[in-house]
Design a protein that fits this description.
Immunoglobulin-like; single chain; five-stranded antiparallel beta sheet; 19 strands; 3% helix
Amino acid sequence: MNKSLLSILVICVISFSNKLFAQCTPDPNLKSTATLPAALDTAYAGKPYTQEIKFFITRDTNVFVPQLGTNLNARIDTLWITGVQGMPDGFTYACHNADCKILGGTAGCARLTGTPTQAQVGIYPLLVLIKVRATAFLGPAPISQNANDTNARYSIVVSGLNSKPELSMSGEPILFPNPAKEELQVYVPELAGEASFEIQNIQGKTMQIGSLQKQEVTHVSLLDYEPGVYFIHILKGNEKLSKKFLVQ
């Protein structure tokens, strides 16, 4: 696996911590780097919300060291979750242990809880702060490295009682609400930089164009739109993502 240490960590592990114990149990069946589920459940205004997340990080891997210009065998010693940003007010996070820490080659879990209000309806991108200690091996001399990074894979959608968001798998656009009336919220998880969007009606006429920013929710006005079916096309680099939404 020819990836930098930071790339491995950012892609593979996410969790939450507030120095409390969560009533969750790590999944012993996880034996390879993974985070489950792929997307968080929708939270509904006025209803208690609970979401469990299971994760695992490998112990031994192969990483690219830019300073040396070569691949080295490496060992993931420890991973900590040091904080989370972007959660709705009133939500709390807790890991399976007090330090929110796992060793390389072990599994962990976390639980997210809260009761959102109608005033909190919308999309909440989460930014998880990660710290990792790893050791790379160059002949008989180990090279230790501490890395700080973030993970922006997950987001929470808080829905009103009469609206249903269109949720996506990891990395795909989230549109909220859908059907929409006066405004559409657009968010693209794991967006590395700036992207652009174009909205077309069912006849292919361009209704609106704009830009999307990393780790931000874009609010698109629909005040001049007739009721019907529309498509949003998102361009990020050489990749094009398209989704359908309704205007009531």
